[in-house]
Amino acid sequence: MKNSCFAVIILLIVLPASMVISGDVSFAGAHYPRVHFLDVGEGSATLIVTEDNQHILIDCGNVITGALVLDFCRWAGIKELDALIITHPHADHMGGVFQLLSELNIKRVYDNGQPIPAVPRCDIYRWYVEAVRNLKNHKILRQGDQLTWPGMVIEVLWPTQALGKNWNDNALVLRVKAGSSRLLLMSDAGRRVEDALLADGVDLRAEVLQVGHHGAADASSPAFLRAVSPRLAVISVNKDNIRGYPAQKTIDLLRRLGIKTILTYRDGDFVWRK
Question: Are 51 and 103 in contact (CB under 8 A)?
C-alpha cells in the first residue's frame, strides 16, 4: 500500500555514491548509519540505525499515527531504543510517545525542556510531563550538546539556554554527522532560528535537509537553503494538511534551487544510508 509503513516502492535518485535514498525499508546488507524518514501523516518521525545496531528515534508522530511507528518497530524487530529524542512537545511530534513507552524498552529520553504550565490549556501536555519528564532517564538537550555512537554523532545546534515564547522556535535543531556526510533536521524551527544560526556563522552544510515546520512559509529562507546547500529535502507532512503545509512558495523555491524534494505523504517511507 502506498504511504504505509510497509511500503516497498523504490525511488531512484541520481546522487553521489556515498548517499543513497530508497523506499526499501529492509535492513539486509545496509550501510550504516541508516536514516528512515517515516510517513506518519501529520507529524514527524525519523529512525536512525547505527552500525552497531543501536536505534535512535527522533520524534514519534501524533497521538494517532504513533501506532505506525510502533508497527514499523515491530516489523523491523526493534524492541529497544537506545535513545528517543523529542524535538519539542507539540502533539504532532510527541504524540506517539504514550504508545512507545508502554511497548519498547527506551534507554534514554531527551527533549528541549520546553516549559509546560502545571495546568496547561490542553491536558496532553500535562500527560506528557507525567509520562516523560518524570522519567529517571530523561535529559534536556541544549546547543553544544553531542550524542555519540560508533560512526555517528548527533550535534545539537539549537536552542540556546534562553527559550522564547514560540514553541516552534524552541525546537531542537539536530545535525547528524557520519564521516563526511551530514543531515540537518530542522523540526519546526522557522526563519528566526535560521537567521540566528546564520548570524552565528554555524556551518550548516548538509546533503540532506529535513525541511523546517513541514514546509510552511515561515521557514526555509533562500539564504538558509543556500547555506545548507542540500541535494535532497524531506518534508514530513500529511495530504491535504489543514494548515496548507507545505507552502507552494517553499516547494517552488526548492525546485528553483534544484533540490530534489520528498513529501512523505506522497512518497512514503524513505531511507538515507551512508
Answer: no
